[in-house]
From TrEMBL, chain A:
Native source organism of the sequence: Caulochytrium protostelioides
InterPro entries (UniProt xref): eIF2B_beta_subunit, IF-2B-related, IF_2B-like_C, NagB/RpiA_transferase-like
Pfam family, one: IF-2B
This protein's record includes keyword Transmembrane: no
UniProt name for this protein: Translation initiation factor eIF2B subunit beta
Record keywords, A-Z: Cytoplasm, Initiation factor, Protein biosynthesis
Molecular function (Gene Ontology), one example: guanyl-nucleotide exchange factor activity
Family per record: Belongs to the eIF-2B alpha/beta/delta subunits family.
Assembly: Component of the translation initiation factor 2B (eIF2B) complex which is a heterodecamer of two sets of five different subunits: alpha, beta, gamma, delta and epsilon. Subunits alpha, beta and delta comprise a regulatory subcomplex and subunits epsilon and gamma comprise a catalytic subcomplex. Within the complex, the hexameric regulatory complex resides at the center, with the two heterodimeric catalytic subcomplexes bound on opposite sides.
A single cellular component GO annotation: cytosol
Location(s) in or outside the cell: Cytoplasm, Cytosol
TrEMBL record, chain B:
Family: Belongs to the eIF-2B alpha/beta/delta subunits family.
Chain segments carrying region Disordered: 1-21
Domain of life: Eukaryota
Subunit structure and binding partners: Component of the translation initiation factor 2B (eIF2B) complex which is a heterodecamer of two sets of five different subunits: alpha, beta, gamma, delta and epsilon. Subunits alpha, beta and delta comprise a regulatory subcomplex and subunits epsilon and gamma comprise a catalytic subcomplex. Within the complex, the hexameric regulatory complex resides at the center, with the two heterodimeric catalytic subcomplexes bound on opposite sides.
Keyword Protein biosynthesis listed: yes
Keywords: Cytoplasm, Initiation factor, Protein biosynthesis
Location relative to the cell: Cytoplasm, Cytosol
GO CC terms of this entry: cytosol; eukaryotic translation initiation factor 2B complex
Gene source species: Caulochytrium protostelioides
Protein name: Translation initiation factor eIF2B subunit alpha
Gene Ontology MF terms: guanyl-nucleotide exchange factor activity; translation initiation factor activity
Principal location: cytoplasm
UniProt KW Cytoplasm keyword: yes
Automatic annotation (TrEMBL), chain C:
Keyword Protein biosynthesis: yes
Species of the source: Caulochytrium protostelioides
SUPFAM superfamilies: NagB/RpiA/CoA transferase-like
Any GO MF annotation of the entry: translation initiation factor activity
Entry keyword set: Cytoplasm, Initiation factor, Protein biosynthesis
Name of the protein in its database record: Translation initiation factor eIF2B subunit delta
Amino acid sequence: MSKDVSLQVDAFIARLRRRQTVGSFNVAIESAKILHNVVSGSRWPDQDHLIDLLQHVGRRLIAAQPGEIAVANAVRRVLNIVREEATKLPLPENPKEFREQLRAGVKQAILDMIDDFLHSGPHIASQALQHVHPNDRVLTFGWSKTVLEFLKEAGKLRKFQVMVVEAAPACSGHQMAVELATAGIDTTLVTDAAVLALMPKVDKIILGAHAVTADGGMIATAGSLLVAEVAKACKRPIIVCSGMYKVSPLGLMQQQEVLSLNSCPNGVYDFEEGDVVERVEVVNPHYDFVPAELISVLVTNMGTHPPSYMSHMLDDVYSKLDLVI
Amino acid sequence: MSSSTPPSATTTSRPAPETTPVGRALQRIQREHPNLSTTVAAIKTLTECIQISKAATLSELIKDLEAQADILKLFRHQNVAIVAACDLFSRFLRDSHHDVFNLDATKERIIAAGNDLVDKSDETRAAIARHAAKHIIQEDDVVLVHSYSRVVVRALIHARRENTRFKVIICEGHAGRGRALGHATAAELRAHGIPTALIPDTALGYVIDTVSFILVGAEGVVQNGGLVNGLGTFTIALVAKSASKPFYVMAESYKFVKLFPLTQYDLPFHDPALIDVSGSDASSSRLPGADYTPPPFITLIVTEYGAFSPGRVADVMIAMTH
Amino acid sequence: MKWTTIHPAVLNLGLQYAEWGIAGGNARCTAMLNTFARVIADYTTPPHQTLSRHLTSVVSRHVDFLNTTRALSTSMKAAVRFLKHEISVLSPDLPDEDAKAGLIAQMRSFVEAKIDFADKAIVKETLDKGKIRPGDVILTYGFSSVVNKLLLKAHARKIPFRVVVADARPKFEGQRLLASLVAAGIPCSYCLLTAVPSLTAPRPTKVILGASAVLANGSIMSRAGTASVALLARMARAPVIVCAENYKFTETLRLDAFVWNELGDSEELSAAAATMPVTSTGGHVSVLHNWRDIASLKLLNLHYDITPAEDVTLIISESGFIPPSSAYMVFKEIEQNVSLA
């Protein structure tokens, strides 16, 4: 790799570690850009060496912040791009020509992918009218940019109500409620404790995800599982909105590492007496895993599908050779 | 009787009950009267205790009986049935508090109550059997039963005598040691000309959709209307619920017992080691002889007073204690 | 003293209720009876009136006032019924001073019997029958005075167990329970409601909850969030025990938690709690600070919810162990024993 690209990689790794770049959307795009520059700004004799290089860089990126699953997703997507582009090219007589064609093809494909990522939100939002009907009472949990855009799109043409569960301790639902209401949508902010009491008054639940697993389950803000279990008990459907960049080819067992990283950055208890802190174990997970059987439908930028269909969609964007990087 | 913590059936600081006089008395009575259910045999045992008691005052008598009951409760086998008997006996004692000064008269009264119950136990069982035969077993039914239960066998024979045409499937009730008691059920039913199939417990899921209803006896009925009965009963109840088959319990009212298990493992006979993983052949030895079936799995409980839902039985038990 | 006004002690009590300085069924009931004792002590029957009839109207007026500060709890309603009944059966020949002294003594007896004795009986029965075992991991929610007493007593009996206190915004009542248990040396964990499904190591072995009321069909009215804990417990196959004194049993039937619920102050949700940063930027100004200016935005602060009977394994009162399906029968029995202590 050129020195310039190497510095870029190091800088990005630092930003990931320090949580200066956070959120699946941001890390997916940044990772893709970095990998584009690696492909562009490094010398490699053939595709196998390119794949090795990308795997090496990819491992470092993933290790910087394993909780950001979108990093690994982007790495795997790029690896798959390289494999696919290589098969598209005819066998050249000239290795140099092959390399340059491959480089150009991969770079363009990565840019297309980034474009895809950028348009995820609008693509998902364009399906909103299929799911949000007039006078619907929708419940959502905490903050999700994807869900926000989804509901705002629906709100342009339809009148409906949204109940936003605040999602303590970060209370990201507060911002969500303010933005929805500011967009003119009839919004009520409620506490986590009120979810079960209110569920009979809800028609559907729409949730965002931090990541989606290969079996169609999802990793989301802690509290999502509570909402999902209550919804199941009251027989209400759950719609999950998620860009494909959040979908991982790994199933849950391999995601244990993510869940074990569970520590919400927001504090939960401000103990007045100092010695209470030492004697109490505070359980404050960042994420929950919501299994596929609790999810009715996944709305992605590639369409609306049942969770069981996820594995088919993964075959289009990931290679089985890249499950372990 | 005392409301102290139920003596653990596995404590080693207490004597093995079968080595004690009262424990041996229970075993002797059971040998001499094999037709008596354990609860009734235990009542008979405690009645005998009163007769031979050397207590000089009522409070001494009560203490004496409590001590004997505590020893009986150390038996792990049929533990809940014995607890039911002790509960019942403590009610006899409580109800006879009127004549505090005339100990002999009090003793007479309690002995009479005990003997009355024992003498009537056969007829009580017969009444329940008749009710089941008349109201539950219908023409062309396929009845699923478990292991061996005297009252269930009685009910089926009675139905046969009433010329109802039905079939019986018996889950053999293999508990990991000794002969499965279902064989005895099969022999007895066949001797009365009842068409019977004896199946291994493993085949339950396979046959359940052919079954009309399940009929079981009871070792004890607990405070919430749940059932304690031979190991394997809960499995059958689970399968029955999943297959939407009615699950009927036949239980004399003296089997109602003041226990309220929170979970499968919240009964006095539970051994926390649960299963022996040491690899020895007696690997099932820590399993109890009974399991607990919670109320949502039970359709009706047939008593000598009629058939009730578990909730009604729970109500009755509350009324009984007040 | 003019009886068209409200007694200052009751004014003060109302304020404490409104500010949640006194909260919880038992505490509110006890405080009310103690305060009414003072009212009765200060009371004199106006000329040409009978104590019985006039005092009843005074009590009613004060009860109505308290209701405006914060809706009466089931426990308080039971106490008011009791007091009015005691007033109504006063002999007209009894001198006023004796009548008042008698009422004050009765109110003290009510607290002693219906709360203090009841709680002792609940604790004893629960522990004597081995419902808290060595090695238990007990999940509880919010603050319940009887659950607090139970856990402290279990610890005093040297039973080794662990407690997980689940809690929620906006009241964080669980922190009060946590402080009590930690001070006694009980090993504790603490989490918010949102974390309950994640409790795996160690996994709770049972759930013990308090109640504001036990309804006719065996369902439980309690602090909002309780029903979620019970639901999750049932799904995790952990038994749910509800501790509730007899006087909280009612013949009310409520099928959902929405229409009748007590609405709390919306401002509570928007107030930046000192215990946590509220905005994603880490600042301490609440994102909701100008929520009233946003026309389409409402804040809903529900205080109670209903836990259905099928999510409750066992109710324990001073009458003993009660399966939820038998709640109405127990209520009827209690009703028949109106005078107590």
